[in-house]
Amino acid sequence: MLMNSLADIATAARRRWGDRTALVFEGRRFSFDEIDRLACRAANALTALGIGPGDRVTLYSPNCWEWIVAYYGTLKTGAVVNPINVMLTPAEVAFVARDCGARAIFVSPDKAAAVMDLARDTPLEQVIAFGAAPAGSAASGATAPASGSTPAGALDFEGLLAKAGDSFEPPAIDPLSMSTICYTSGTTGHPKGAMHSHRNVLMNTALTAVMHGRSAGDTVVTALPCPHVYGNVVFNGAFCHGMTLVLLRRFEEQAVLSAIQEHRATMFEGVPTAYMMLLAHPDQARYDLSSLTRCTVGGQTMPVAKAQQVQERFSCPLLDLWGMTELAGLGTTHAWHGPERLGSIGVSLPYVSVRIADTESAARTLAPGEVGELMVKGPIVMMGYFGNEQATRETIEPDGWLHTGDLASMDAEGFVTIVDRKKDMINTAGFKVFPAEIERVLAAHPAVAMSAVGRVPDEMKGELARAYVVLKPGARTSEDEILDFCRRDLAAYKVPRGVRFVASLPMTSTGKLMRRELHRLDADQGGTP
Q1: 346 Cα distance to chain centroid
Q2: Is the pLDDT of residue 346 over 60?
Q3: Average confidence score pLDDT of the chain
Q4: Which long-range contacts (CB under 8 A, 24 or more apart) does 441-448 make?
Q5: Residue 511: what pLDDT?
Q6: Which of 28, 131, 230, 399 has the fewest C-beta atoms under 10 angstroms from its C-beta?
Q7: Predicted pLDDT at 106
Q8: Beta carbons of 42 and 69 less than 8 angstroms apart
Q9: pLDDT, tens digit, for every residue of 419-439?
Q10: SS3 89
Q11: With the C-alpha atoms ordered 393, 395, 396, 398, is the resulting torsion angle positive or negative?
């Protein structure tokens, strides 16, 4: 079956692999047939609620079987999926829902009550709560037992599935039309919605599979969040190529090691922090990991020494990769059958062009070995930022080249190495944190006159955010109070890991903040960066 849209993935997999195991989640196995039937039920339920082509539907939940079913069910209706990080606060969710105009939202039980409270101030018309009931009830057609977790006004997901039909005929979908809006932290203090076409995601999934040699003979273990573009490529790649996907709700060392051993996994995919924690686990040597044939790592730079340790312990290649939300996944990676270049993020995906541009003149391509901005062009580049033409023009050149904001170099063979970040983004265990977003919250504190956020290195998470605060005259507060204030409106990974109270902030002659000089404030106070 030729796949023209993401709506075709589950159907094509069902026709080709039928009763084979597609998904394993918390002890339950789902066949490709079962996943597609459940997705059809979800599509029928959404259609009955008035959701159709072009409508936006938000997914706000940790990894679970329901997330996968809701994702494919939404796409079958022709609606646009808006997958968001489960760590976002209600205030952040409200902004995203208003910005993209989401009409419906799928939520986990622990988020349902909070979402119901914010729904009246957003375009959201339907709140659909995943339940804690046994997963098998809806698939068999029986009425789902009450889980007791659905708040008043919300709809029970399994109850909707139980009442819906097993077949659904998707509308005609243009491959170049929008399939997804993925929000990325914004340098202006608010996130921006990267629009992906069906072709963007399908191409990234297919090209990644070619580079990594994914096939129906593979079993992959992952705890990568499904809403993240890296996690999205992993689960879509599994369904597109007949792999068995062993999905974990969240990362936990023993759960990962046990899953690899129990399911004889051929692949594990994660961020550098995950590998470091696995290496440090006291019982890791007791697990049989001999089934692994290759692993992938992305989200932040993997130290060469740690990569070598992973390859020695796991006895398989570790394929580094690099990507971004604006590319619907990967932009570069290493081929599983190609040469090893530890410390490099690999080469461009097939049919994708990358180059190193002069930071002062993007039209000029630099010679091998020179450092400049990494730029990308090809069928994986986003359509633009939803409702933000100015940001789109600033990011994508008229000839299609995308500014990544990362400083890098490329050797004569096309292998790219990230050197630094052009922008001030802080990369915490693969999560992107922008200082302006934190500063926007700090500015609302009654005792804060000025603030700036910089980065400090961290062995496990790569980088952490640190806040530098100038208090108003006569004002008093504490580090704990500032951090508690941030937690009200920021996801946990965005909250600074420390606060420095300072008399002034480094500025240019024009009054522009110099974030790169913030580390000097630590030295002045005798602190360690």
Answers
A1: 20
A2: yes
A3: 90
A4: 441/485, 441/486, 441/489, 441/490, 442/467, 442/469, 442/482, 442/485, 442/486, 444/485, 445/477, 445/482, 445/485, 446/472, 446/475, 447/471, 447/472, 447/475, 447/476, 447/477, 448/472, 448/475, 448/477, 448/482
A5: 47
A6: 399
A7: 98
A8: yes
A9: 866 677 788 888 878 787 898
A10: coil
A11: positive
Is there a contact between 418 and 301 (Cβ–Cβ < 8 Å)? yes
131 or 227, higher pLDDT: 227
Contact 223, 257 (CB under 8 A): no
pLDDT higher than threshold 90 for residue 291 = yes
Q: Which residues of 298-336 are buried (b: 16+ CB within 10 A; e: fewer)?
A: bbbbbbeebbeebbeebebbbbbbbbbbbbbbbbbbbbb
* CB atoms near residue 188 (< 10 Å): 12
The pLDDT tens digits of the residues spanning 394-415 come to 999 999 999 999 889 999 999 9
Return the amino acid letter for 15. R
Q: CA angle, corner 450, sides to 444 and 453, nearest 5?
A: 90
Query: The whole model's pTM is what?
Result: 0.84
DSSP conformation letters of 250-303: S--HHHHHHHHHHHT-SEEEE-HHHHHHHHH-TTGGGS--TT--EEEE-SSPPP
Concatenated DSSP letters of 8-69: GHHHHHHHHHTTSEEEEETTEEEEHHHHHHHHHHHHHHHHHTT--TT-EEEEE--S-HHHHH
